[in-house]
Amino acid sequence: MLLVAAALCSLFAGCSSPAAETSEAPPAPASSTEPSEQTPELKDVDLAFFTGKVETVDLLDEIIAAYNAQSGGITVEQEYQNDASNIIKIKFASGAAPDVMTTYEQEYVDQGKYLDLSDWNDVWDRLIPSMRENCTDLNTGNQFRVCTNMTMAGFWYNKEIFETLNLEPADTWEGFVANLEAIKTAMPDVDPWFIFGSEAWHLGHLIEFMPHGYIKAKFGATEAKEAMLANDKAVLNFGDPSGAMATFASGLLEVQSKGLINADVLTATNDNCIDAFVTGKAAMFSNGMWCLSSILEKDPSMADKIGFMPYPSMMADGTPMVLVAEDSGYSISADTQYIEEAKSFLEYLFSAENQKKYSESLGSPSAFTDVDADWAPAAVVEGVNIAIDSAANIGYTNEKPAGFSGDDAGRMVQDLLAGRYTAEQFATAYEEAWDAGFAS
């Protein structure tokens, strides 16, 4: 054993001789500054992502942080602006367009501001075909944005209040006002219809879903879009004192004068509306699917109390309407230096895992066929489906002039509720603003 140990010690001593004494130098180690074939090249890219969708800011911050951590040097920074439709005008005009954005206007499509995404087949092959159709530009037949969700908008109402007073959702404006009056009489401490008028986009949506909705339902989606693109006054008829716009304005002034909407309409916020609804201080309000998560976060027990109904017809030849449209659309700037990086970020956002989380957080069904999301309680989904089947399905007004945004329209409704217009004056002013928007 001693002889063996001695032999081993001799062997190890031989192996530890200096490299300088060997006949061949060992190979030089690989330089740490040169990436190997297995290590992707690190990038140093800052991507600007711009949005006006307040409901998604926190979740997207979370998704963006996860993307940035594994992106290999691509850093996405989210910018939220409440007045996004107007801020984007300044960004485009100053040459500071964000790389990726959720704001989308027809005039900017016509000006070539958005990247053509028509050949992005890895995404389109996953999307419900009707949603790709909704993302298609009428003039070119191409797609300059990708939507990730579908949304519906109508009136949300408290089913317990309606059941207590034996009320049914109304198809006509007269029936709708009668319901509001019944609620006010029986429950004087409850606001029959809560409008959060401090937020211009919300009031702009009322125009989209009611007077614009009447035009879309009457003439059909394609003809209405063509009329708006061409500013065809024979179809739009915005300034007519007996038309849909004046009738809408007259209806708002009527419910305001009767005390059927909240007295703080011009200062109330979205948060005020949610608080009032979940505490039983508001019987109904207008909004889209995106409000569901806020309601259920405040009070999960509301799941069985939430009703959904179409917008009532305000015109004699109208029909009840429900918004059924694309939601959460994303576009890439045509001027970005980082097309592939922008697509990389969106592909990460569009993954089935992230879209399931997004859909369930937003309370909105996914537009992707491979995403299985529990986006709303079963009772809510049933009510929404009934409303969709019972009313005309309308889309968003994407063809409005860029010089007259939805927020601009909402500010005009603020002025209406502040007493600065009669109904007829409002209709005339709206038509003038719409016309000026095409010329700006």
Please write out the topology.
Elements: H1 2-15, E1 45-51, H2 57-70, E2 74-80, H3 84-93, E3 100-101, H4 106-110, H5 121-124, H6 129-134, E4 146-158, H7 159-164, H8 173-186, E5 191-193, H9 200-209, H10 211-219, H11 221-230, H12 233-236, H13 244-257, H14 270-278, E6 282-288, H15 292-298, E7 306-309, E8 321-332, H16 339-349, H17 352-362, H18 378-390, E9 392-394, H19 406-417, H20 423-439
What does this structure look like?
The protein is an alpha/beta fold. It folds into 2 domains: 45-150 and 326-362, D-Maltodextrin-Binding Protein, domain 2, CATH 3.40.190; 152-325 and 382-439, D-Maltodextrin-Binding Protein, domain 2, CATH 3.40.190. The chain is built from 20 helices and 9 strands. The protein has helices at residues 2-15, 57-70, 84-93, 106-110, 121-124, 129-134, 159-164, 173-186, 200-209, 211-219, 221-230, 233-236, 244-257, 270-278, 292-298, 339-349, 352-362, 378-390, 406-417, 423-439, and strands at 45-51, 74-80, 100-101, 146-158, 191-193, 282-288, 306-309, 321-332, 392-394. Strands 1, 2, 3, 4, 5, 6, 7, 8 and 9 form a 9-stranded mixed beta sheet that branches. Strand 1 (45-51), helix 2 and strand 2 (74-80) form a beta-alpha-beta unit. The longest helix has 17 residues, at 423-439. The protein is globular and about 70 Å long.
